[in-house]
Amino acid sequence: MNILFTASEAVPFVASGGLADVIGSLPEFINNHGHKCSVVLPLYSAISDELRCQMTLVKNITVDVSWRKQYCGIFTATFNNIDYYFIDNEYYFARDGLYGFYDDCERFVFFDRAVLEMLRHIDFKPDVIHCHDWQTALIPVYYNIYYKYQQGYDGIKTVFTVHNIEYQGRYGREVLGDLMGIPPYNSSLLEFDGYINMMKGAFETADRITTVSPSYAWEILDPWYAHSLDRILVTKQYKLSGILNGIDYNLYNPQTDSIIADNFSAEDISRKSVCKKSLLNELGLADGDGAVIGIVTRFVSHKGIDLIRCVFEEIVRMGMKFVILGSGEKIYEDFFREMSARYPESVSVTLGFLPELSHKIYAGADMFLMPSQSEPCGLAQMIAMRYGTVPIVRETGGLRDSVRDNGGVNGNGFTFKTYNANDMLDAVKRAKRDYENKSVWSDLVRRAMKCDYSWEISADTYIRLYEDVIS
């Protein structure tokens, strides 16, 4: 099969979140199963000159953006045996940052139309176009309206993956004709609650809809999670499914990771203590036997920071330390700064995102706290388990699918159900109790490290999905 991934970001080119990790990893594992997976991305100015030097021009074309005709350059390059295509237009993509501009709608209308026009000019005809999030949601819409019956486009299937349903591509009705060029008789595909909703258009027209975990697939049928789109999704359950994301086991490998202080494995976890001691020394925290809780996250409300604020000092008074890395809303940044100043020997806060420090936290912490209000998949809890750092999570989305409570048989972490600070605190107390029993804790750490959340399993599931939609 030929699969074309289309997305707005991917490592190693540009990244703002977990979407880039998925697009940068999954195609390789699909190819390892004997298929051909390629990727198309916008050619952002943020892509380094080193990577740009390896790209070659395929062709310059024009692309219709409603009544406009816009320049489009098609570039290609091969990285890690994956063929990448890049859509160039400096007016749209030569900017500081990826999103958040006044004309994001027009930028990704152009990109989506350009992806379909590109197929006329490259030596690759996909059996499936796999679109990711609202930035590519118009590709199945345009395909069904304009391309489905054109020569060379016949038989292509489309899959649309929701990475976060909160971001839907909602705009005023005026964009339908002025930017998108959608005829009035097709307007019902995109109209929703008085707006134009790009994600809704993908739900209507894609052959399959997927999410990044099985639990999130049924959670978004509930109004509390779906940000109003549940009213559409309940009618599309026949083509909706969830596939849990994986992580790159080569990048996150405690046996070979050169960033961490010492290497270790599930068979011999003794050297993990070296990583803990090194982390505490580097961040200026007091050494000792107390448990260290790691947090690597964005400081936004749906990540459960409000719960952490409510009981933070109580956890510190229990003798536990915090190592925190992240950035986000000022109210949360200010809170963590205050806690670091108030408890300098127990709390370390680093604002921003430093990949090397994140590796050290995953390897050196004893526990990893992730009390999300909603979490479509979550990768951090899987990375933490890979390094033997036991997750404490709320049962939602991918956290529910990847972490089993240690109160049951063969648990690999600690969980709580309701979005409540005291319930989270109870899970922390249970983790502390087991931590103080070294035999119990060692067994738990080994079980967590032996869990398989590699892309191999996810890739096999995606391949079966592609085969099903083609047949």
Describe what you observe in this structure.
The chain is α/β, with parallel strands linked by helices. The chain folds into 2 domains: 2-246 and 456-470, Rossmann fold; 272-452, 3-Layer(aba) Sandwich (Rossmann fold), CATH 3.40.50.2000. The chain is built from 19 helices and 18 strands. The protein has helices spanning 18-31, 49-52, 90-93, 104-118, 138-147, 175-178, 198-205, 214-219, 223-226, 230-233, 272-283, 305-317, 330-342, 355-364, 380-386, 397-402, 421-435, 438-450, 455-470, and strands spanning 2-6, 36-42, 56-65, 68-79, 82-88, 128-132, 157-162, 170-171, 191-192, 195-197, 208-211, 240-242, 292-299, 321-328, 347-351, 367-370, 390-394, 414-416. It has a 9-stranded mixed beta sheet, with helices on both faces. A 6-stranded parallel beta sheet has the order 15-14-13-16-17-18, with helices on both faces. Strand 6 (128-132), helix 5 and strand 7 (157-162) form a beta-alpha-beta unit. The model has no long low-confidence stretch (mean pLDDT 95).
Task: Compute the number of structural domains.
Answer: 2
Q: Give the termini separation.
A: 12 Å
Biggest β-sheet, characterized? 9 strands, mixed
Ranges where pLDDT stays below 50 over 5 or more residues in a row are: none
Number of strands: 18
The level of helicity is: 25-40%
The CATH superfamily label of the largest domain reads: Glycogen Phosphorylase B
Percentage of β-strand residues: 15-25%
Evaluate the radius of gyration. Answer: 23 Å
Specify the number of helices: 19
Strand order of the largest sheet: 3-4-5-2-1-6-7-11-12
- Just name the CATH architecture of the largest domain: 3-Layer(aba) Sandwich
